[in-house]
Amino acid sequence: MSATKITELRSDIDELNQLLKQAKRKKVQDILSLEIRKLETELISLKESDKDENAMDVTPTPTTSSQSQKRYQIKLNGYGWDQSDKYVKVFVTLKNVHNIPKEQVYCKLTDKSMELHVDNLENKDYLLVINKLLHTINVGESHWKQKTDMVVIFLAKSQQNVKWSHMTELEKKFEDQRNNRYKPTESEKADPQESIMSLMRNMYETGDDDMKRMISKAWYEGQQKKKDTLEM
Question: In DSSP terms, which residues pair with 109 in a beta bridge?
Fold first, then answer.
């Protein structure tokens, strides 16, 4: 799924860069540049999370064991997942995790979130947090297992046989935004300025408050300049 998103982001960035080259007004160039930077940030984030399935925070948080020995908490970002009719299965790779007692591997679950805790694995504590799951889970029927160099969490679906399209609400929202992203018509492809204006309208309709304010300001200033020119 990450590879598909990366490809789509690259295509969108390339298309916006082409429009930026054709744009003549400074405000329009600024807005297109802002959108390009936002997509580039998303792209960098996806690439970083894709580098290593077990990407970790650069600055670990020190923790203390019952013997007052200093340990570090490492937050995990990477995981794999799959599903059956009854379960969403989350796969977390941790070398030698099968060698520690079961009591040191546990999950904290709610109907819409999960936390995996692995305590004192080679003097480190590991934590994986997944919030805002796409659908609710049945906490009582969920469980987890230690396997060779891996922990598998079985999240029991509240609604069995319901297929999860994404792991979290955020991932689904991101995908929906990608699918709804503006696509130029044939006439707009033939007229770059019309394409830019249509893109601006689409960005206004789908953008956040800051984006809407910036586009409104650019539109107003453009109309004022037209008015001043006519009056002269």
Answer: 114
Count of other CB atoms within 10 angstroms of residue 148? 9
Q: Closest by alpha carbon to 107, among 79, 143, 150?
A: 143
* CA nearest neighbour of 161 among 81, 86, 83: 86
Could you tell me the CA-to-CA distances from 181 to 12, 50, 205 in Å, in that order?
Answer: 9, 23, 11
Task: Specify the amino acid at residue 66.
Answer: S
pTM, rounded to two decimals: 0.52
Task: Identify whether the C-beta of residue 223 lies closer than 8 Å to the C-beta of residue 230.
Answer: no
pLDDT tens sequence across 25-77: 777 777 777 777 777 777 776 666 665 444 444 445 555 544 456 788 999 88
| H or E element in which residue 17 lies | helix 2-22
Question: 76-115, pLDDT tens digit by residue?
Answer: 888 889 999 999 999 999 999 999 999 999 999 999 999 9
SS3 76: strand
